[in-house]
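User: Hey, quick favor. My workstation is busy. Could you predict this chain's structure for me?
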Amino acid sequence: MPKCNNFCPSFAQALEDHGITFIGPNAEHIRIMGDKITAKDTAKALGIPVVPGSDGGVPDFETAIGVAAGIGFPVIIKATAGGGGRGMKVARNAEELEIAFRTARSEAKAAFGNDEVYIEKYLQKPRHIEIQVFGDGRGKAVHLGERDCSLQRRHQKVFEEAPGPCITPAMRAKIGKVCADAVAKINYIGAGTIEFLYEDGEFYFIEMNTRLQVEHPVTEGIFGVDLVREQIRVAAGMEMSFGQEDLEINGHCIEVRINAEKIPNFSPCPGKVTQYHAPGGLGVRMDSALYDGYRIPPYYDSLIGKLIVHGRDRPEALARLKRALGEIIIDGIDTSIPLFHMLLAEPEIQNGEYNIHWLEKWLERQFAK
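Assistant: No problem, here it is.
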């Protein structure tokens, strides 16, 4: 079976066919949003702003060069069934496009069993802003603000925060209503995330994840809600326990993803955890299954823990994160914790002035040679 960025719709469909309630969106919504082209077309029809690009899949290089000429270089090629940065290549001219097109299709085929790709305008310095939505499956939906997930390496998020440092209350209300209205129209049920690139005051849809995101705790932290509990409630046929008018932001929340990786190469580091101590205290949450003696296998994603902190404002959250990172102990393996110690010393991180390219450029400067 091809790998799926969202839950595979066949699983949800099998449960529906056997009269078993799936805690999450229905199979049709998972299918629609699991295909990037269909998702983009659906988003456009629902009134969500999208990135300029190809109308559907691009079958060959001749078509690709025509699309690129129409929207202008640079462009980015993406796998229609993609996720996690696989099958994504940037081209800044026709020569790069030919190589990128071939490589993206090859990667997409290997990762997802589907080599179809599409093309979009490549924005220069965007931020990655995602809107958390929640629907009851009966035409009622709300948004729970945004998360800024712009600190990424190879399109993989490493640091997420809410609310976004660059988003004003007016922006939040406007794009949040667009997203909530959109999912209400299709009777979406459960949690979902509508992801955007944000640049110069404009939002551009890139995908919708029909599931609970890794970074959902930062949303829970600023709104005081339990999204997992809420999913169970609506799946059981109950009404949502809150409405849009009940949702008020309280403070600031940051999450860092702790991976079993060796810095600076980010190579996986499986092995035995000889000592583990989780940080604690007011406003500190550690989500992990680690314990003394746990052996991290080499077969799965390298994520081994999520450290989430909440503060009355962003400076307090950053200070609390620094303290918590100093308390955590994970011995026996290498982790990404040293990376976050370094990042917290950077003025751009302290001021929230970063975009989706910032981290990779910073890493190049820090670990050159």
